[in-house]
């Protein structure tokens, strides 16, 4: 998120400094599964997903580097009648927004797309072939390197110690290496946004939540180019990754927090679901695993916009930060540089929970 914003702000002629407590792209981004989609339930997220795909499709022209964008599609498997009804309504909205290639499928059609898929208990499925996958490292460093060429400075291994303030406005930050003054400061700290905001006494409703990812050794049970497949009822998902398969599932019993240790016992729960939904996975040998963090908000929508004079935020993306980073960086840069956004982002107003009205929760969260 920060590197995308730095790219678009520096392209607009702004002098930009990115400060990372570690190495860029090595926090939550490094642990994500790389999904890119527009199959959301709210109009603003659908439009953002569509624009993000357009930007990634021409990433080389924009930044000079590849995004490793592979439009292999997203296949959502639906179990209950309620899920099918909800996704059918979402498809109507998606098509009204211009997502013309999204379709509703019968279970047998989903089974034909993914060999070995068990679909007898499904109520339906949806598929969008222009959704897909991209490379987290490729996108992050593509934006970062292009931003540097445009004059941006990226400072790594430098935690901020405090914000600089004057007359109620944020005027920069202090680090161990010194103070950096700035007329505008943006919190793009992902799952760690709340502790950063707390330095100013802000209570940001962003809570980290662990997600675990597993990758197999070379595995012939999945075709290269198979879609990102998601069993929405259980959140079990998988897609081809190199010569193997990458898979995972959310765990509602995991307490909030920033613990990123791998719980290998969770693999048994995933394989129990896979046995019912995609039995070929049981033949795969797990090569590696890691854990990353979602940054959840109460309505699973981000906080984007001004917090107080001189301070902005782009955080709380609830698992969708990587896929929406290209467009959020572009639109937020326009807001900061020009004083207006290309589209209405009021659904993401940072103070919306205090206001208690106008919430537009995202329902297609995995």
What does this structure look like?
The protein is an alpha+beta fold. The protein has two domains: 2-30 and 137-206 and 299-355, FAD/NAD(P)-binding domain (3-Layer(bba) Sandwich), CATH 3.50.50.60; 70-133 and 208-295, D-Amino Acid Oxidase, Chain A, domain 2 (2-Layer Sandwich), CATH 3.30.9. It is built from ten helices and 18 strands. It has an eight-stranded mixed beta sheet with strand order 4-5-3-13-14-15-12-16. A hairpin with a 2-residue loop joins strand 17 and strand 18 (311-315). It is globular, with a radius of gyration of 20 Å. The chain starts with a helix and ends in an 11-residue tail after the last helix.
Q: Can you give keywords for this protein?
A:
366 residues, alpha+beta, FAD/NAD(P)-binding domain, D-Amino Acid Oxidase, Chain A, domain 2, 2 domains, eight-stranded mixed sheet, three-stranded antiparallel sheet, 18 strands, 25% strand, globular
Biggest sheet character: 8 strands, mixed
Please report the number of helical segments.
Answer: 10
How many distinct domains? 2
Poorly predicted regions: none
Query: End-to-end distance, in Å?
Result: 20 Å
Helix and strand content put the structural class at alpha+beta
- Please bin the fraction of helical residues: 25-40%
Please name the CATH topology of the largest domain: FAD/NAD(P)-binding domain
What is the CATH-assigned architecture of the largest domain?
A: 3-Layer(bba) Sandwich
The CATH class name of the largest domain reads Alpha Beta
Mean pLDDT: 96
Write out the strand line-up for the largest beta sheet, numbering strands in chain order: 4-5-3-13-14-15-12-16
Tell me the total number of β-strands: 18
Approximately how much beta-strand content do the residues carry?
25-35%
CATH superfamily of the largest domain: FAD/NAD(P)-binding domain
> Per the principal axes of the C-alpha atoms, what is the gross shape?
globular
Name the quaternary structure.
single chain
